[in-house]
Amino acid sequence: MAVRELLLAGADERDLTKLKEYQALGGYESLAKARGMKPEAVVEELIASNLRGRGGAGFPMGRKASFLAKETGKPTYLVVNADESEPGTFKDREILTRSPHRLLEGCLCAAHAIESENVFVYLRGEYLDAYEVLSQALEDARRAGLLGDVSLTIHRGAGAYICGEESALLESLEGKRGQPRSRPPFPAVSGLYASPTLINNVQTVATVPLIVEHGGAWYASVGAEPSPGTVVFSLSGNISRPGNYELELGTPLRTLLYNIGGGPPGGRAIKAIIPGGSSTTVMTPDQLDTALDFNSVAESGSQLGAAAVIVIDDRACMVQLALRASQFYMHESCGKCTPCREGTRWMVQLLRKIEDGEAVQSELDLLLSVCDRMMGKCLCALGDFAAGPVIQYVAHFSDEFQRHLDEGGCPFHGESSLDGIFAPVDQHSHSPVAEVPA
Amino acid sequence: MSYPDRRSTILNELREAQSRHDGWLPPEALQEVSDELDLAPAQVKAVASFYDMLHLEPVGRHMVEVCTNLSCALVGAQAVLEAFQDELGVRAGETTEDGAVTLRAVECLGGCGRATVVAVDHRYREPVSAEDVPAIVGELRDGR
Predict the structure, then answer these.
(1) What is the rounded end-to-end Cα distance, in angstroms, of chain A?
(2) With 50 as the cut, is the pLDDT of residue A105 above it?
(3) Set of chain A residues whose Cβ sits within 8 Å of the Cβ of B53
(4) Domain A318-423 has what CATH class?
(5) Which of A55, A326, A355, B7 has the fewest CB within 10 Å, making it most exposed?
(6) Is this complex scored with an ipTM above 0.90?
């Protein structure tokens, strides 16, 4: 079995939301060790560990920390991205609710490394349970004197996927609409309040105490090179044992889906796998031997993303799947960049026509053309997240898309597992509608 | 509070204003936040209209939110949403006539491993199946 619990170690046996329980397992000893080291020495260990960001982009944390502008006369900020909203992803909530002190210790170690006294945790607004657990843990850590000179604030969002994008998150944290910024300048130079800012995902920051404790070289030796360590995989969809599983990077997809997840219920066949959340491109059953690490998944043509593995069995219509995913991105597009704002809406209209059997051949080509005109054309990756996967749904399941055109409707005839699924974007507003006199 | 700029507190201010005004943000609630933070009303409304958890129209005394994103949809979210619609006699996006319950379909709530996820007054119930729906609605009706 490839399960290896480092981040979630002890959480099954003990109530690690309690400070004493966490300390009984050696909790906050890494913080003491880090504070006994020179800040740049901690950054060196992070670089040596080759810890890659767990939020989706996979950028090495140590390098990002080393880019921070120095001697600017402004404070340096550490911002933790806890705005987990990528469809299929629920790993950060697991860490936040079951091992909150590990995140707090990670914050304090990282703050020491970058000589920051100001930490913000931007927490997804809907995560009320995580907010309560993390707030209590923070209060306990503060009372125990663990914060030192560091001010740590939990900042609650209010429901917007785009705020998981780092520059939109900073805008939101500054009290504005969560719309991405143009870059450069990057946050390391001009981030929160135009000051040098390091932003990392919950899981990335929660890994820092392990690297301080055992050293960067040790962490680099765990799992697969060149993306070492463990990752909490969120497994969902048509799978017998869904849930979060912390695995060494490099574990084969087949092991996760069958040995750990038990395969689809009822012994059904897997039709498709989304490996990293709905923004990543689809994989097919012939790719089950792909190793789950950043590079191997990229070589397979997809992305590890947020390691949110969604399993789709043979009952699902892929046009409906593409439509539902596109409706999500249409709903979440912030509207700042035209290709994304208009493109996501156009994609939904075209996919709806294909699903309803009202599309002609040229409209399938048009769908791909719209996707092409979105890719890489916006300030942030949301447009790519919408368009990239749809291009691959069409490429991998071209017969199924074609049958919708040829047969004048969905070949599943109402039997798809996704049939009739309703998206929030189709919801009526509560605004009163004026009666039009006859 | 450790924000160098008070404007950073706007989401908290709006959240509190919303809870003072029956769960939504009428114009006077936006004005209160404008006054509190010394921002133009347009700036406050620009922010309030951006976020899904802030409501610019009246809502029911209770809120039922059903995730219909992919992971929940693959295992039956549509049946759960339909059960709520039948039980409450409203469509997604609407409030019952007595003002008791607003039903919404929402995007991924981050509970995909225990699908279908339903948030009842912002507390997650996971997993919820169509069979669980009458009891949940009964609970809300009993509590008024």
Answers:
(1) 70
(2) yes
(3) 125-126, 158-159
(4) mainly alpha
(5) B7
(6) yes
Q: Domain boundaries in chain B?
A: 6-48, 62-142
CATH superfamily of B62-142: Glutaredoxin (3.40.30.10)
For the domain covering A19-221, report its CATH number: 3.40.50.11540
Q: Which chain A positions have a beta carbon within 8 Å of B51's beta carbon?
A: 125, 157-160, 178
E strand segments, A106-242: 118-123, 151-156, 197-201, 223-224, 227-228, 230-237
| B20 interfacial to chain A (CB closer than 8 Å) | no
Each domain of chain A, given as residue ranges in start order, spans 19-221, 231-313, 318-423
Q: What pTM was computed for the model? A: 0.96
Structure-block tokens of residue A354: 């294909």
Stated length of chain B = 144
- In this structure, which CATH number among 2.30.30.100, 2.40.110.10, 3.10.20.600, 3.40.50.150 belongs to the domain A231-313? 3.10.20.600
Report pLDDT digits (tens) over A174-230. Answer: 999 999 999 999 999 999 999 999 999 999 999 999 999 999 999 999 988 788 899
Sequence-separated (6 or more) residues with CB below 8 Å from residue B21 = B28, B29
Got the DSSP string for B39-62? --HHHHHHHHTT-TTS-SS---SE
10 Å Cβ neighbour count for A5? 14
Write down the residue that tokens 């949809």 correspond to: B73
